[in-house]
Design goal:
Helix content: 40-55%
Strand content: 15-25%
Strand order of the largest sheet: 3-4-14-9-10-13
Oligomer: single chain
Length: 400
Protein backbone atom coordinates (compact mmCIF):
# COMPACT_ATOMS: atom_id res chain seq x y z
CA UNK A 1 0.00 0.00 0.00
CA UNK A 2 1.19 3.56 -0.72
CA UNK A 3 2.54 5.45 2.30
CA UNK A 4 0.31 8.43 1.43
CA UNK A 5 -2.77 6.20 1.32
CA UNK A 6 -5.10 8.54 3.24
CA UNK A 7 -4.24 11.50 1.00
CA UNK A 8 -4.94 9.45 -2.13
CA UNK A 9 -8.16 7.68 -1.07
CA UNK A 10 -10.69 8.90 -1.74
CA UNK A 11 -9.88 11.32 -4.56
CA UNK A 12 -11.49 14.78 -4.76
CA UNK A 13 -14.68 13.35 -6.28
CA UNK A 14 -14.98 10.82 -3.47
CA UNK A 15 -13.88 7.73 -5.39
CA UNK A 16 -11.89 4.82 -4.06
CA UNK A 17 -10.69 3.75 -7.52
CA UNK A 18 -14.00 2.92 -9.28
CA UNK A 19 -16.12 2.83 -6.10
CA UNK A 20 -17.83 5.56 -4.09
CA UNK A 21 -18.63 8.92 -5.64
CA UNK A 22 -21.93 10.73 -5.31
CA UNK A 23 -24.93 9.70 -7.42
CA UNK A 24 -27.66 11.89 -5.96
CA UNK A 25 -30.13 14.63 -7.06
CA UNK A 26 -28.62 18.10 -7.75
CA UNK A 27 -30.33 19.78 -4.77
CA UNK A 28 -28.94 17.17 -2.40
CA UNK A 29 -25.52 17.33 -4.07
CA UNK A 30 -25.30 21.02 -3.15
CA UNK A 31 -25.82 20.11 0.51
CA UNK A 32 -23.21 17.35 0.28
CA UNK A 33 -20.70 19.81 -1.13
CA UNK A 34 -21.36 22.16 1.81
CA UNK A 35 -20.74 19.28 4.22
CA UNK A 36 -17.57 18.33 2.34
CA UNK A 37 -16.24 21.91 2.44
CA UNK A 38 -17.09 22.19 6.14
CA UNK A 39 -15.43 18.88 6.92
CA UNK A 40 -12.16 19.87 5.24
CA UNK A 41 -12.07 23.27 6.93
CA UNK A 42 -13.72 22.83 10.33
CA UNK A 43 -12.56 19.31 11.18
CA UNK A 44 -8.91 20.21 10.63
CA UNK A 45 -9.08 23.21 12.94
CA UNK A 46 -7.43 23.22 16.36
CA UNK A 47 -10.72 24.00 18.16
CA UNK A 48 -12.60 21.11 16.54
CA UNK A 49 -9.82 18.58 17.15
CA UNK A 50 -9.34 19.71 20.76
CA UNK A 51 -13.05 19.48 21.53
CA UNK A 52 -13.36 16.05 19.92
CA UNK A 53 -10.33 14.72 21.83
CA UNK A 54 -11.77 16.04 25.08
CA UNK A 55 -15.13 14.35 24.35
CA UNK A 56 -13.41 11.04 23.57
CA UNK A 57 -11.39 11.09 26.76
CA UNK A 58 -13.80 12.54 29.30
CA UNK A 59 -17.19 11.49 27.90
CA UNK A 60 -16.69 8.37 25.77
CA UNK A 61 -14.07 6.80 28.03
CA UNK A 62 -11.38 6.37 25.36
CA UNK A 63 -9.01 4.71 24.91
CA UNK A 64 -10.81 1.39 25.12
CA UNK A 65 -8.49 -1.50 26.13
CA UNK A 66 -7.05 -4.43 24.21
CA UNK A 67 -7.69 -7.66 26.14
CA UNK A 68 -6.02 -11.08 25.85
CA UNK A 69 -8.53 -13.99 25.86
CA UNK A 70 -6.61 -16.56 27.90
CA UNK A 71 -9.27 -19.27 28.23
CA UNK A 72 -10.52 -18.88 24.65
CA UNK A 73 -6.95 -19.10 23.35
CA UNK A 74 -6.23 -22.17 25.49
CA UNK A 75 -9.26 -23.97 24.07
CA UNK A 76 -8.94 -23.01 20.40
CA UNK A 77 -5.22 -22.27 19.97
CA UNK A 78 -3.56 -19.12 18.76
CA UNK A 79 -3.39 -15.95 20.82
CA UNK A 80 -6.76 -14.20 20.61
CA UNK A 81 -7.03 -10.53 21.58
CA UNK A 82 -10.06 -8.23 21.61
CA UNK A 83 -10.18 -4.50 20.97
CA UNK A 84 -12.91 -3.73 23.48
CA UNK A 85 -15.16 -1.26 21.63
CA UNK A 86 -18.01 -2.76 23.67
CA UNK A 87 -16.61 -0.64 26.53
CA UNK A 88 -16.94 2.59 24.55
CA UNK A 89 -19.83 4.72 25.89
CA UNK A 90 -23.21 3.41 24.57
CA UNK A 91 -21.67 -0.04 24.08
CA UNK A 92 -20.28 0.06 20.54
CA UNK A 93 -17.88 1.80 18.16
CA UNK A 94 -20.69 3.91 16.67
CA UNK A 95 -20.25 6.84 19.07
CA UNK A 96 -16.78 7.48 17.58
CA UNK A 97 -18.27 8.90 14.39
CA UNK A 98 -21.59 10.08 15.86
CA UNK A 99 -19.87 12.56 18.19
CA UNK A 100 -17.76 13.74 15.25
CA UNK A 101 -20.78 14.15 12.96
CA UNK A 102 -22.81 15.92 15.67
CA UNK A 103 -19.90 18.24 16.45
CA UNK A 104 -19.68 19.08 12.74
CA UNK A 105 -23.45 19.73 12.71
CA UNK A 106 -23.04 22.09 15.65
CA UNK A 107 -20.33 24.07 13.82
CA UNK A 108 -22.58 24.17 10.72
CA UNK A 109 -25.49 25.56 12.75
CA UNK A 110 -27.76 22.56 12.08
CA UNK A 111 -30.67 21.94 14.44
CA UNK A 112 -31.55 18.32 13.73
CA UNK A 113 -29.74 14.99 13.27
CA UNK A 114 -31.40 12.37 11.04
CA UNK A 115 -30.22 8.79 10.63
CA UNK A 116 -31.11 5.18 10.00
CA UNK A 117 -30.30 2.28 12.30
CA UNK A 118 -30.39 -1.51 12.01
CA UNK A 119 -29.23 -3.06 15.28
CA UNK A 120 -29.96 0.22 17.04
CA UNK A 121 -26.37 0.93 18.08
CA UNK A 122 -25.98 3.80 15.62
CA UNK A 123 -29.38 5.13 16.66
CA UNK A 124 -28.50 5.05 20.36
CA UNK A 125 -25.11 6.64 19.68
CA UNK A 126 -26.62 9.45 17.60
CA UNK A 127 -29.40 10.05 20.14
CA UNK A 128 -26.66 10.29 22.77
CA UNK A 129 -24.71 12.79 20.67
CA UNK A 130 -27.88 14.83 20.08
CA UNK A 131 -28.59 14.94 23.82
CA UNK A 132 -24.98 16.00 24.50
CA UNK A 133 -25.13 18.89 22.02
CA UNK A 134 -28.78 19.85 22.56
CA UNK A 135 -29.95 18.93 19.04
CA UNK A 136 -33.15 17.29 17.79
CA UNK A 137 -32.80 13.68 16.67
CA UNK A 138 -34.88 11.48 14.36
CA UNK A 139 -34.03 7.80 13.87
CA UNK A 140 -35.58 5.64 11.13
CA UNK A 141 -35.73 1.93 11.89
CA UNK A 142 -37.36 -1.05 10.19
CA UNK A 143 -40.30 -2.58 12.05
CA UNK A 144 -38.58 -5.99 12.07
CA UNK A 145 -35.56 -4.50 13.81
CA UNK A 146 -37.72 -2.48 16.22
CA UNK A 147 -39.16 -5.74 17.54
CA UNK A 148 -35.81 -7.55 17.48
CA UNK A 149 -33.77 -4.76 19.13
CA UNK A 150 -36.36 -3.47 21.61
CA UNK A 151 -33.85 -2.47 24.35
CA UNK A 152 -32.11 -0.07 21.98
CA UNK A 153 -35.43 1.43 20.85
CA UNK A 154 -36.26 2.24 24.48
CA UNK A 155 -32.80 3.78 24.99
CA UNK A 156 -33.26 6.05 21.96
CA UNK A 157 -36.63 7.21 23.27
CA UNK A 158 -35.27 7.83 26.78
CA UNK A 159 -32.50 9.93 25.23
CA UNK A 160 -35.14 12.08 23.53
CA UNK A 161 -34.97 10.80 19.95
CA UNK A 162 -38.02 10.32 17.75
CA UNK A 163 -38.03 6.73 16.42
CA UNK A 164 -39.77 6.44 13.03
CA UNK A 165 -40.96 2.89 12.19
CA UNK A 166 -40.37 1.83 8.58
CA UNK A 167 -43.04 -0.56 7.32
CA UNK A 168 -42.29 -1.05 3.61
CA UNK A 169 -40.23 -3.73 1.88
CA UNK A 170 -38.38 -6.11 4.20
CA UNK A 171 -38.75 -3.54 7.01
CA UNK A 172 -35.03 -3.71 7.87
CA UNK A 173 -31.85 -1.68 7.33
CA UNK A 174 -32.04 -0.87 3.60
CA UNK A 175 -35.59 0.44 3.95
CA UNK A 176 -34.56 2.46 7.02
CA UNK A 177 -31.84 4.16 4.92
CA UNK A 178 -34.40 4.92 2.18
CA UNK A 179 -36.75 6.46 4.72
CA UNK A 180 -34.08 8.53 6.46
CA UNK A 181 -32.80 9.91 3.15
CA UNK A 182 -36.36 10.94 2.27
CA UNK A 183 -36.76 12.78 5.58
CA UNK A 184 -33.45 14.57 5.12
CA UNK A 185 -34.45 15.75 1.64
CA UNK A 186 -37.45 17.56 3.13
CA UNK A 187 -35.26 20.01 5.08
CA UNK A 188 -31.53 19.78 4.28
CA UNK A 189 -31.03 23.39 5.34
CA UNK A 190 -31.70 22.81 9.04
CA UNK A 191 -30.87 19.11 9.36
CA UNK A 192 -27.92 16.84 8.63
CA UNK A 193 -28.02 13.19 7.66
CA UNK A 194 -25.58 11.30 9.88
CA UNK A 195 -24.93 8.07 8.03
CA UNK A 196 -24.20 5.11 10.29
CA UNK A 197 -21.37 3.48 8.38
CA UNK A 198 -18.70 4.01 5.71
CA UNK A 199 -21.41 4.09 3.02
CA UNK A 200 -23.50 6.69 1.17
CA UNK A 201 -22.48 9.54 -1.10
CA UNK A 202 -19.19 11.39 -0.64
CA UNK A 203 -18.07 12.66 1.89
CA UNK A 204 -19.61 10.14 4.30
CA UNK A 205 -17.44 7.07 3.58
CA UNK A 206 -14.37 9.23 4.14
CA UNK A 207 -15.74 11.10 7.17
CA UNK A 208 -16.92 8.02 9.03
CA UNK A 209 -13.65 6.22 8.31
CA UNK A 210 -11.63 9.17 9.58
CA UNK A 211 -13.64 9.42 12.80
CA UNK A 212 -13.28 5.65 13.31
CA UNK A 213 -9.51 5.62 12.72
CA UNK A 214 -9.09 6.21 16.46
CA UNK A 215 -9.88 2.49 16.97
CA UNK A 216 -6.98 1.31 14.82
CA UNK A 217 -4.54 3.94 16.12
CA UNK A 218 -5.21 2.88 19.71
CA UNK A 219 -5.22 -0.85 18.96
CA UNK A 220 -1.90 -0.82 17.10
CA UNK A 221 -0.15 1.04 19.91
CA UNK A 222 -1.75 -1.10 22.63
CA UNK A 223 -1.00 -4.40 20.92
CA UNK A 224 2.62 -3.43 20.30
CA UNK A 225 3.00 -2.37 23.92
CA UNK A 226 1.52 -5.68 25.15
CA UNK A 227 3.41 -8.03 22.83
CA UNK A 228 6.32 -6.14 21.28
CA UNK A 229 5.04 -6.88 17.78
CA UNK A 230 2.12 -6.43 15.40
CA UNK A 231 -0.74 -8.95 15.21
CA UNK A 232 -0.48 -11.67 12.57
CA UNK A 233 -4.21 -11.32 11.82
CA UNK A 234 -6.80 -8.54 12.31
CA UNK A 235 -10.47 -9.56 12.14
CA UNK A 236 -13.66 -7.45 12.07
CA UNK A 237 -17.27 -7.96 11.00
CA UNK A 238 -18.49 -6.18 7.87
CA UNK A 239 -21.99 -4.94 7.10
CA UNK A 240 -21.48 -1.41 5.83
CA UNK A 241 -18.03 -1.70 7.33
CA UNK A 242 -17.32 1.18 9.75
CA UNK A 243 -15.81 -0.81 12.61
CA UNK A 244 -13.69 -2.80 10.15
CA UNK A 245 -12.35 0.32 8.40
CA UNK A 246 -11.65 1.81 11.81
CA UNK A 247 -9.31 -0.97 12.86
CA UNK A 248 -7.99 -1.94 9.38
CA UNK A 249 -6.90 1.65 8.70
CA UNK A 250 -3.94 1.37 11.09
CA UNK A 251 -2.60 -1.82 9.49
CA UNK A 252 -3.12 -1.23 5.74
CA UNK A 253 0.56 -0.48 5.16
CA UNK A 254 1.75 -3.43 7.31
CA UNK A 255 1.79 -6.24 4.77
CA UNK A 256 2.74 -8.80 7.45
CA UNK A 257 -0.69 -8.28 9.05
CA UNK A 258 -3.44 -10.26 7.34
CA UNK A 259 -6.81 -8.47 7.39
CA UNK A 260 -10.13 -10.34 7.42
CA UNK A 261 -13.59 -8.80 6.96
CA UNK A 262 -16.31 -11.21 8.09
CA UNK A 263 -19.70 -11.02 6.37
CA UNK A 264 -22.94 -12.82 7.33
CA UNK A 265 -23.49 -16.14 5.54
CA UNK A 266 -26.87 -16.29 7.30
CA UNK A 267 -28.89 -19.48 6.85
CA UNK A 268 -27.66 -20.39 3.36
CA UNK A 269 -26.28 -18.81 0.21
CA UNK A 270 -29.70 -18.73 -1.45
CA UNK A 271 -30.97 -15.26 -2.41
CA UNK A 272 -32.48 -13.53 0.60
CA UNK A 273 -30.88 -15.91 3.10
CA UNK A 274 -27.55 -14.10 3.60
CA UNK A 275 -25.82 -10.72 3.24
CA UNK A 276 -22.41 -11.83 1.94
CA UNK A 277 -21.98 -8.89 -0.44
CA UNK A 278 -18.29 -9.41 -1.19
CA UNK A 279 -18.72 -13.11 -1.93
CA UNK A 280 -21.79 -12.89 -4.15
CA UNK A 281 -22.23 -9.25 -5.16
CA UNK A 282 -21.02 -7.30 -8.17
CA UNK A 283 -20.45 -3.55 -8.69
CA UNK A 284 -23.64 -1.48 -8.62
CA UNK A 285 -25.16 1.71 -7.21
CA UNK A 286 -27.19 2.01 -4.00
CA UNK A 287 -28.04 5.01 -1.80
CA UNK A 288 -26.00 7.41 -3.90
CA UNK A 289 -22.68 5.54 -4.18
CA UNK A 290 -21.06 2.68 -6.11
CA UNK A 291 -19.93 -0.50 -4.37
CA UNK A 292 -20.15 -4.26 -4.47
CA UNK A 293 -23.89 -4.94 -4.28
CA UNK A 294 -26.15 -7.96 -4.00
CA UNK A 295 -28.54 -7.35 -6.90
CA UNK A 296 -30.99 -8.94 -9.29
CA UNK A 297 -30.82 -9.03 -13.11
CA UNK A 298 -32.24 -5.49 -13.28
CA UNK A 299 -29.58 -4.11 -10.93
CA UNK A 300 -32.05 -3.67 -8.08
CA UNK A 301 -30.77 -4.55 -4.58
CA UNK A 302 -31.53 -8.14 -3.59
CA UNK A 303 -33.29 -9.02 -0.35
CA UNK A 304 -30.80 -9.85 2.40
CA UNK A 305 -30.84 -11.50 5.81
CA UNK A 306 -28.62 -11.85 8.86
CA UNK A 307 -29.17 -12.90 12.44
CA UNK A 308 -27.41 -9.59 13.21
CA UNK A 309 -29.58 -6.59 12.35
CA UNK A 310 -26.55 -4.35 11.84
CA UNK A 311 -25.17 -6.52 9.03
CA UNK A 312 -28.23 -7.11 6.81
CA UNK A 313 -27.34 -4.55 4.13
CA UNK A 314 -27.05 -5.47 0.41
CA UNK A 315 -24.16 -3.06 -0.20
CA UNK A 316 -20.84 -2.37 1.51
CA UNK A 317 -18.49 0.57 1.94
CA UNK A 318 -16.73 1.67 -1.27
CA UNK A 319 -13.33 1.55 0.42
CA UNK A 320 -13.93 -2.09 1.30
CA UNK A 321 -14.86 -2.72 -2.34
CA UNK A 322 -11.53 -1.25 -3.44
CA UNK A 323 -9.56 -3.20 -0.82
CA UNK A 324 -11.17 -6.41 -2.06
CA UNK A 325 -10.05 -5.69 -5.63
CA UNK A 326 -6.56 -4.80 -4.34
CA UNK A 327 -6.55 -8.13 -2.45
CA UNK A 328 -5.37 -6.29 0.68
CA UNK A 329 -8.33 -7.55 2.74
CA UNK A 330 -9.75 -11.08 2.61
CA UNK A 331 -13.55 -11.05 2.85
CA UNK A 332 -14.87 -14.24 4.43
CA UNK A 333 -18.13 -15.38 6.04
CA UNK A 334 -19.66 -16.81 9.20
CA UNK A 335 -23.06 -18.52 9.36
CA UNK A 336 -25.81 -17.82 11.87
CA UNK A 337 -25.05 -21.07 13.70
CA UNK A 338 -21.31 -20.34 13.89
CA UNK A 339 -22.12 -16.86 15.16
CA UNK A 340 -24.43 -18.08 17.92
CA UNK A 341 -21.84 -20.66 19.00
CA UNK A 342 -19.19 -17.92 19.17
CA UNK A 343 -21.61 -15.67 21.09
CA UNK A 344 -21.89 -18.28 23.84
CA UNK A 345 -18.22 -19.32 23.76
CA UNK A 346 -16.97 -15.78 24.40
CA UNK A 347 -19.64 -15.22 27.03
CA UNK A 348 -18.89 -18.38 28.99
CA UNK A 349 -15.11 -18.58 28.61
CA UNK A 350 -14.28 -14.88 29.02
CA UNK A 351 -17.31 -13.25 30.66
CA UNK A 352 -17.80 -10.96 27.65
CA UNK A 353 -21.21 -10.97 25.93
CA UNK A 354 -20.66 -9.74 22.35
CA UNK A 355 -23.10 -8.10 19.97
CA UNK A 356 -24.28 -10.55 17.30
CA UNK A 357 -22.51 -8.39 14.72
CA UNK A 358 -19.19 -8.74 16.58
CA UNK A 359 -19.82 -12.46 17.19
CA UNK A 360 -19.38 -12.99 13.42
CA UNK A 361 -15.80 -11.76 13.78
CA UNK A 362 -15.26 -13.92 16.87
CA UNK A 363 -16.59 -16.96 14.97
CA UNK A 364 -14.06 -16.52 12.20
CA UNK A 365 -11.28 -15.81 14.71
CA UNK A 366 -11.94 -19.21 16.33
CA UNK A 367 -11.47 -20.87 12.91
CA UNK A 368 -8.23 -18.96 12.37
CA UNK A 369 -6.95 -19.90 15.82
CA UNK A 370 -7.63 -23.59 15.21
CA UNK A 371 -5.87 -23.50 11.83
CA UNK A 372 -2.96 -21.28 13.00
CA UNK A 373 -2.20 -22.20 16.62
CA UNK A 374 1.03 -20.17 16.72
CA UNK A 375 -0.37 -16.92 15.38
CA UNK A 376 -1.87 -13.87 17.10
CA UNK A 377 -5.37 -12.66 16.20
CA UNK A 378 -6.73 -9.20 17.03
CA UNK A 379 -10.53 -9.02 16.86
CA UNK A 380 -12.41 -5.75 16.84
CA UNK A 381 -15.18 -6.47 19.33
CA UNK A 382 -17.33 -3.69 17.92
CA UNK A 383 -20.21 -3.89 20.39
CA UNK A 384 -21.72 -5.55 23.44
CA UNK A 385 -24.65 -7.95 23.35
CA UNK A 386 -27.13 -6.41 25.80
CA UNK A 387 -29.39 -5.56 22.87
CA UNK A 388 -29.38 -9.16 21.60
CA UNK A 389 -29.85 -11.33 24.69
CA UNK A 390 -33.67 -11.49 24.63
CA UNK A 391 -33.68 -12.38 20.92
CA UNK A 392 -30.96 -15.03 21.29
CA UNK A 393 -32.63 -16.75 24.24
CA UNK A 394 -36.07 -16.67 22.60
CA UNK A 395 -34.82 -18.02 19.24
CA UNK A 396 -31.94 -20.30 20.24
CA UNK A 397 -32.28 -20.95 23.97
CA UNK A 398 -29.38 -21.64 26.30
CA UNK A 399 -26.73 -24.14 25.12
CA UNK A 400 -26.91 -27.60 26.66
Amino acid sequence: MATNYFKNYPNQEGFFEQYGGSFIPPNLQKEMEKITDAYFSISKSHNFISELRSIRKHYQGRPTPVYFCNRLSTKYGGRIYLKREDLNHTGAHKLNHCMGEALLAKYLGKKKLIAETGAGQHGVALATAAAYFGLECEIHMGEVDIIKEHPNVVKMQILGAKVVPVSHGLKTLKEAVDSAFGAYLQDPENSIYCIGSVVGPHPFPMMVRDFQRVVGIEAKEQFSEMTGELPDNVVACVGGGSNAMGIFSAFLEDEECKLFGVEPAGRSFEVGEHAATMSYGKPGIIHGFKCYLLQDEKGEPSPVYSVASGLDYPGVGPEHSMLKDMKRVSYVTATDDETIDAFYELSRLEGVIPALESAHAVAYALKLATENPRQSILVNLSGRGDKDIDFVIEKYGLPK
